Predict the 3D structure of the following.
Amino acid sequence: MSEPATHKNHGYGREQVVQIINSVISKVENNETVSKDAIFQELRSLQQIIEDARKEIGMARPTDIKDKHIPTATDELDAVVEATAEATGTIMDVCDKIQEYAAAASGEYGTAIEGEVIKIYEACSFQDITGQRITKVVSTIKTIEEKVDKLVKVLSQQLPGHHHEEDTSGGDDDTRQGDERLLNGPQMADQAISQDEIDKLLSEFD
Amino acid sequence: MTVDKNMNVLIVDDYTTMLRIIKNLLKQLGFTNVDEATDGSMALEKVKAKPYGLIISDWNMEPMTGLEFLKQVRGSDAHYKDTPFIMVTAESKTENVIAAKQAGVNNYIVKPFNAETLKTKMTAVLGEF
């Protein structure tokens, strides 16, 4: 008769689950020599592992991935594409002007300037390439979102009692403290305030 | 055979940045009759309305891709069976190039590219200019 499988409160691995299942199978196959209690003990261990895993997944708040993290990531990436497109447009507008001046100047310098402007134009194709790469990244992120969503649904259906009650932080998962919490990089346009609003706000301190 | 630099050229890309770049490079090469389209279906409307001597198209566009546009162009009226068609794209896998060739593309430029590459490929499909 094999020894009952043991488990700790956390840190289960695939090996441990397999070990318990093998132990149960072994006991069932030798049912003449083992009590129902022994099998029950093994199943109880397995149940505990599943329960703990469910809690750990719940504490990781997988719904946040779909509801918060992924939309934030994709919005940021969209903003990158938009900002680079705008900046590239401005660069090319300036190039157009320089080309006009170069044509008017003519001669050796005019030709040299036009040659350099063409190089700037060529370099501007980075916007197209980065845009396409970012689109691919967004697509990959959305695939992850779908997988996580499926996982959450499976957990909700197969493990009764699975709710999102583990989320006790009031929706704020930012673990940073103090001034660090103020560093969030460029804001999305709909979340930022304008320079005028900043000036107005500052004036209120005067 | 001399290349008529007054020929109509159609450039197709869903990124306006690329349209501006290609248009500017074409201007530097002396081609000024350049029309633009931002996807295959819009490009198809343009080729039905006017004869073009050269088509330069991106591949990755929606709703109609450059490859689908190429196939439709080659399957349309006789004029477009032999019209020089250059694919300019970031799609650089062997199977892409093969598929484009099988669909009737004359040349293939991988992004990013420079003026020299564009001129070389245009010369290859149009002749010296």
